[in-house]
Amino acid sequence: MVDDMKVVVNQRLTGVIMKTDIHWVLTVPAICSDLAKQFMRQAAVKAGITTESLTIVLEPEAASLYCQHLPVNTTVTDGSLTKSQFPPGSKYMVLDAGGGTIDITVHEVQSQNTLREVRAANGGDWGGTMVDKAFENFLIDLVGETVFDTFKHSETEDWLHLSRAFELKKQAAGAQSEGNVTMHFPVSLNDLFETENESKLCIKDAIVASKYGKTVELKRDKLKISHSTIGKLFEESLEQIVQHLQKLMKDERMADIKTLLMVGGYSESLLLQRAIKSAFPGIHEVIPQEASSAVLRGALIFGHNPIAVTERVLKYTYGIAIYQPFEDGKHPESKRMKTDKGDCCRDVFGNLIKKGLSVTPGETQVRKQYTTGNKKQTGLCFDIFISEEKTPTYVDDKSCTKIGTIEIGFEELDDIPGRIVNLTMLLGGTEIIVELEDEKTGNKVINTAEFWG
After folding, report:
1. E strands of 236-365, at which residues?
2. pLDDT digits 0-9 by tens, 185-194
3. Are strands 317-325 and 91-97 parallel, antiparallel or unpaired?
4. Residues 6 or more apart from 87 whose CB is under 8 A from it?
5. Fold match between 2-122+245-312 and 314-452?
């Protein structure tokens, strides 16, 4: 993609675009973990993008920014045009429905077209690919799992044509309720079915005998599927999305949310729009006319103005594994460890910052000091954890997940324990930044590659 972009740009513009002229913006789902974001960054670096020339942007934030910049009368609501801009102080929910994930965030408009995140991003993998999986299961019901698996792997070109045909039908689903949806049925799939069944049963008779006997019909190479059967392929996805939204709406912070901004390709689905309208009759749906490209266009805006989001809400509690003086009766014996300072309890969760707090991009939210426990210690190593809980006790609790390690070494060793290392964290951006400083020498380590291990 990087190479293709350079070729296309240089073909369309006079002069030569240098590598240093480009700043790249990569979009990721807001429900992505810190580790997943770092994986994307490392993949981009491997593709030839320098880390200084790369910005990671959360998809619902990008879409929300784009809608803030839309002119009057360029969004669609209930089939009519409406004003897109929200006045300062107004809150709205963003539903970013893509192919894979459903991202949900709540934003409050600030002055000068900036946004504040009110509730941490959440969601799940209930997007359009869940409907695609339901379509695969539908085909398995018709031809059997063995035939379908063989078809996917040995007749890949025909499978891709069938998948693309279904994608077009999926986009139009809900526009009609009567009649059938007609799709081309590959000859190769028919041949594989007859081979598997040794020509004793033709696919047409198998469909008649299946649970779809009254709603699906095969005529020559045309598969006719009732609209009701197509609609059922969406049921699980729609149910998951609606149930999650209903759970969110019970939060007291959502009491004044009256507007739902729907973006992403799946948001253009009439079935999804109807499901949400039916479940939330008091919510005003706003759908940009370019809903499928809202993230792409918003990412461009974010690249030019990365401070457009002024505040975000932490999804996790961040902490490190620390040692505490061992207390009999309080700490488990299995965690006792001897040091030059005396017996300590290991694996204690040292809280850095709690989930749910609002943080500002560009500001340092965590400043902590830690000291060595042994003389002649060669450095300090910090294992960094996240937790769904606000106050976990130990880093090996079920709620804790290690996201990486950062380490600083000492050039000069001390004859006594107690050497000071300062740890700072910035968490307001789309990625976290951790810095260690050896107070004695001033040496610093910032997000080394080993940090994400």
Report:
1. 259-263, 284-288, 309-313, 317-325, 336-339, 342-353, 358-359
2. 999 999 999 8
3. unpaired
4. 109
5. no
Number of Cα atoms under 13 Å in the Cβ half of residue 426: 12
Give phi and psi for 36, each to the nearest 5: -65, -40
Tell me the pLDDT tens digit for each residue of 313-372: 888 899 999 988 999 989 999 999 988 888 999 999 999 999 989 888 878 889 999 998
Q: What is the pLDDT of residue 71?
A: 62
Residue 141 CA to residue 230 CA, distance in Å, equals 14
Residue 398 CB neighbours (<10 A):
9
Q: How far apart are CA 351 and CA 333, in angstroms?
A: 22
pLDDT of residue 424: 93
d(CA 158, CA 161): 5
Residues 6+ positions from 247 with CB-CB distance below 8 Å:
none
Of the candidates 216, 163, 222, the one whose C-alpha atom is nearest the C-alpha of residue 190 is 222
Location of structure tokens 């200084």: 52
- What DSSP state is assigned to residue 350? E
Architecture in CATH of 314-452 = Sandwich (2.60)
- The CATH code of domain 2-122+245-312 reads 3.30.420.40
Tell me how far CA of residue 43 lies from CA of 39, 49, 101, 434, 453, in angstroms.
Answer: 6, 9, 20, 20, 14
**Token pair for residue 241?**
């999305």
For the chain, domain boundaries: 2-122+245-312, 128-232, 314-452
Q: For residue 134, count CB atoms less than 10 angstroms from its CB and return exposed for 0-12, middle for 13-18, buried for 19 or more.
A: middle
Instruction: Give the model confidence (pLDDT) of 397-419 as tens digits.
Output: 889 999 888 999 998 888 888 89
